Each structure stands twice: as structure tokens, then as C-alpha cells.
Amino acid sequence: MTSPTQPPPKKKAQTVQVQDTLKKQEAPAAQAQPTEQAITPDTSSVSKLFAKMNTSENIITVDNKFVRFQLTNKGGKIKRAYLKNYKNWYTDAKKKDVDVYQDNIQLLDVYRGGSFDVEITTIPDRKLISTRDLEFTPSTAQSSIVLKDHDSLSLSYEYVNVANQKITRTYTFYGDRYDTHVGVELTNLDSLSGNSYDLVWNGGIRSVEANSYDEANSSNSSIYMGGEQEKLKAPTDKPAFHGKLDWMCFRNKYFAIVIAPDQPDMIDSTKIQGYKEFKANNSVRDIYRGVISIPLKSASQKNTFLLYTGPIDYSILKKYNRNFDRIVDFGSFFGLSFIVRPIAEYLFMPLFKFLHLFIPNYGIVIIIFSFIIKLLLHPLTKQSFSSMRKMQLLQPKIAEIKEKHKDDPTKQNKETMKLYSTYGINPMGGCLPMLLQMPIFIALWGMLQSAVELRQQPFFWWITDLARPDIIAHLPFKIPIFGIDQISLLALLMGVTTFLQQKMTVTDPQQKAMVYVMPVFLTILFMNFPSGLNLYYFVFNLLSIGQQYYITHTTKGMELVPVAQNKRKPGFMSKMMEAAEEKAKGQQHKSKNKK
């Protein structure tokens, strides 16, 4: 367990609402910006043309239904983005009188530069020009603007020097959306910059959860191009990806920043660098830097981008029709995500959201969800239990064969396979149904582990946040290897039900140790998991125990009955044994002929 990120000191927020005439129409798309690294600071005359800002910073606030944006004339960029529907981990989820600046999540990394810095490398002296500290002039004198649901607003920032070289940044905000369109226009900079400029995103996305290690495990950056998503996990410094870019993303556990060019073909290359930052309070954070290189083909050129700053909510991301939904991670089954993803995407997620339409409490939704999944898996589970029961009944006969042919392993295996065929038993019949269920369990795991819908959602009593562990006590030490120093009641209950289930299932004396080892291991492992996930597995285990009890007692009088000769079919293992015997006979025949 890591030390939680400390809440910031409280400061008095001052906001002024100013009426504005808003155009109810779509504004032009957003634009990208240049960047490059490790360039010698400029000391030539270019530094006079692009001098750093030496006046006080001016902030403009734009409010819509979901986000409060703060824009600054320093760099002419978005400085902060507060999500109104999502509170900080240290803010009471039930708090009504909310101070956006103190209580709500803010995604942009202010201290590392934040959003959309334009960087240009001059030729031939290779001096770096950056908009990060330039003073831009806003197109409005208003300090606060509030948008209604269907309103839109365009405002711009402009930097012009004495050489009439101009950088214009345009922002279009919408009243009921998480995205903003950003435009970047360069004028008379083509001769200075050569043939390209960079658009830089510094800092990736802020860490906003109490458990920084858990959040860092879910954090990553990714590039989507050519119909494929390339995920990059810190630390990373891969070579630049060349070709058109559909989007670039930085995500933590529940939120994402997405930069998507409106003209993907205009992008020359994309590069993401990342590293891990460890702090004194035992917290960790993934830091990323993204660079989009754009060809500069004329004296005046404008590029536009969509900037999404919001939750990793599947239904919201899907509506953009730009493959943003690929940011939602449903897990993978031995690297085969194409098996797991459709199950979660087209079955579990719609079912989960459908139930919530009628049931406001997500804890109850998870319980009902567990019942439905158990019902869907009942045929497979029943087949598995039935096969295991038949194998138990067959054990005395198998023991006789082993004793009778203990000096002839080949004969022993052949007779065992014949026994399976006689009674119509598949030795893999107990394992195969369980194997088929694995993609389903992994899809459920991925969905419940990172569902933003569960964040700060209470169930009842001690479970106040389904996205965090339901801690009832803290240990004075950390459990070795696992690093756990807290006790989750749902994890304990899940462990107890796992033990009971194992006790009912495992009958082989050689596997008795697993009855005790596996539940203890899973209990410790689940101590740090979200209570929503533990609630699901606890309820699912209870249902499995009841199901197993029912099947065991309904099959108590089961007897092994030989299958009619004309209905017997050799199983897979029998066929393999026969093939091996034929091959052995062939080799023996060849060796005799040689003699």
C-alpha cells in the first residue's frame, strides 16, 4: 500500500461570471503544435523576436456542463481542466457545496508545461523557439465565460513580433462536451523554421488517485495509427512513429487526455517518451512527453486538433467514431485481447449499463450481475462438476489398472484410455469447461477493475467507494513480497468462500495443500483490489458453493454405466495414444528389416 497523495492546501477561489454572446454553431477544429528537445537555448537575435513574458499572467475561465477550463496568455494555452462530475479522492463524495478548484479533479500537469506548446528549431543555427513562455494577446477581455448546453464559443490567442511573424491559437468550446477543438496557425515562420514544427504535450496526465502505485499500473500512453494501437508504458523512449496519426493518448486509471488531428495525413511523425517519478512519500507517477511533428509547407499554415479531457467512459468515447473506445482496456487472455474484448464490449458492458438504468446503487447492480453471469455459465459449470464426479467414481478402476500393469506404462495408458471410452468419459471434461470460462472471467476483471462508473460510488455501511478497497483495519507492518499493510473485509470474505469451494471440490490427496494455499494467496492479493471487484467475486463464490452443493447432492447416487458399443467414440487422448503406438510399431518394423 502506498502513501496517498496529499491533498493540496486550500486556497480561496474567485470566479466572476460574465455574460457573453455565444454562437450556436460549430466552430473550426483545433490545431497542433511543434516540439523538439535537447536544443541549445537561444542567445541570438531570435531571442529578441521571441522574448519571454515579463508581465503578470492573465487567466480566462470557460465553464461548460462538464469541464471548467482555465486559459492563460502565457503560452496562449489551456492551463487547467477541472472535471465537474468527478471529485478528488480526499473530497467527500456526498459533499453538495462543491468548490471546483479545491474539490474537483484537474487533469493537466501545470508544472511541466501542460498543453500544446509550439516548438520550432531555427535553421541553420538550430536554436529552439518555444511558445511556452511567450505573451499572447487574447481575443476577449472577459475573465469568465459560462456556456449553456448547446452553446459554442471560439476565442483565440495571438503572438506577433516586430518581424510580423505570427502564431495564432484558436479554441472552440462546447456547452455539453468534454472535448475542445484547438487550432494552431503559423504565419511567416516557414523560412525561419525550415520545413517543420512540433506540437508538444508535456507531463502527460496528472495522478489523481490515493493509491499512486495502483494508478501507475493502469497508466500508459498510446498512439493509434493505421488501424492499430501501440501502447507505451513508462519508462519508454522508442523511436518516433512515422506516418499519419489518428490520435495520441495519455491515461491514468480512470481519465484520459486524447489529442486527435483533424487531418491525420498532415502528421509527419509522433514520439512519446516516459519515465517513472518516485517521491519521498512513497508514491510513484508515470510522466510522459508527446511530440507531434508537422510539415510546414507554406508561409501561412493552420492545423486543427480535437482535444479530449475527460473520463475513460466507453459510451462517451464511442460516440466520437474515431476509435477512442480502444483506450478502454478490458484485459487480455494470454495476449489474445480479440477474444476477451468482444465479450466485455458487446455483452458485459451493455448489460451492466442496462441494469443501472433501473437500479441506481452500483453495489446492487454488481450483485444482480453476479447472478446473471452465474446463470449464463451454469451449463459449463454443471458439465465440469459432472465430469469431475465421474472421474472420482472411476478412480478405483484406474488404480486397479495401475497395479495390474505397473511394470508396463504403455499397457497401463492404453487400458486407461480404453476405460475412459467404455464409460464415455473425457479426462479433460472437468478442465475444458473451466478453460472456456477464463476469457469471461478476464473480461469481467478488466471491466470492473477500471470502470469509472464505480469511482466514489457507495454501496452500504462500510463500503463507501466501490472503486477503492473497503479497508477496515491497518497492519503495523507490511506483508513481505505483497507489500500489503491493510485489511479488506470483502477480500477476507472472498478468501473464506474460496476455501469452502476448494474444500468441496478437491478430493485428490495430492492436491490437499492447494485447498489452503490458494485461498490465502488470493486473499492477500485481493486486499488492494477495488471493493466492487471483490464484491463480485464474493457473491459469485457464494453462488458457486450453492450450485456445487446442489449438483453434488443431485448426483450422489450416480453410477458408472458402460456406453453401448456402437455409441463409443475414441477421445482425443485415445487417438493420440493410438497414433503413438502406430508410430512405435513402424519404427520397430524398420529396425527389424535393417537387421
Main sheet attributes: strand count, strand direction, barrel closure: 9 strands, antiparallel
Please give the alpha-carbon distance between the first and last residues.
Answer: 71 Å
Identify low-pLDDT runs.
Answer: 10-44
C-alpha Rg (nearest Å)? 31 Å
Shape: elongated
Structure explained in plain terms:
The protein is an alpha+beta fold and 595 residues long. It folds into 2 domains: 46-323, Beta-galactosidase, Chain A, domain 5 (Distorted Sandwich), CATH 2.70.98; 355-554, no CATH class. It has 13 helices and 22 strands. A 9-stranded antiparallel β-sheet has the order 7-9-10-11-20-17-16-13-14. Strands 6-5-12-19-18-15 form a 6-stranded antiparallel β-sheet. Strand 13 and strand 14 form a beta hairpin.
Describe what is shown at a glance:
The protein is built from 13 helices and 22 strands.
Structural descriptors:
595 residues, alpha+beta, Beta-galactosidase, Chain A, domain 5, 2 domains, 9-stranded antiparallel beta sheet, 6-stranded antiparallel beta sheet, 34% helix, elongated
